[in-house]
């Protein structure tokens, strides 16, 4: 959801320069601005910026709570009357544009609290494994696995086998290229629950990226046998096909290419990958 809202600030002279409080740097990803007051860039046709507070709803994910608008004047930043009477919360996605995090001076200028009073309601369960796992999930799902680690590791210290936690933690480690750590988590997860094929999917990915191809193949075979999800099966199969393409092992490649086509939908991305590998087999 692209949010291009309007706002701008006004600053009294209280020991800092006007340029310090007026300047807005729209260089921050929304997932790096959790629990912060932020402003969105304005459209070329607008004169104001939207501003508000970003937080994570453990169910809905990254959320922008609209506060009001501000504009720049010769005297500084000026807060404008709120456009809406009712609360306005907007869900943020990967398409959200970069935002500006408001400085302490700008927050003071707008006469804002350090954080909204309502925020406590969203953090009342913040030390529970469920809350921490859900926060980690939203970071992972939005491509910020580096930020997912902290809540996930906190949850792991409390209850390592909490439902869904080991998958999220291993997913984060794999996304960050920390494959040995992912393996350590997944081996313990499988010892506790050997029926979860998602553990095998992640473990196969870890071994594949450590170039432990035989181990990856064994694990992927187990995962495919357990899974009743053709998409997941095709993902595991195409990963092995890619490995054998890179090794130029035609017999093994053909085996896994056939499995990929068996489970992948026609003209799907994974089917197209197989076609690409075959067309480029003799190219270095």
UniProtKB/TrEMBL annotation:
Alphabetic keyword roster: Repeat, TPR repeat
Give me the TPR repeat coordinates as residue ranges.
197-230
Question: One short Pfam family name for this protein?
Answer: TPR_8
Cite the InterPro entries for this sequence.
TPR-like_helical_dom_sf (IPR011990), TPR_rpt (IPR019734), Ycf3/AcsC/BcsC/TPR_MFPF (IPR051685)
Point out the signal peptide segment: none
Report the transmembrane regions from the record: none
Q: Which PANTHER family match?
A: CELLULOSE SYNTHASE OPERON PROTEIN C, TPR REPEAT-CONTAINING PROTEIN MJ0263
Q: What is this protein called?
A: Tetratricopeptide repeat-containing protein
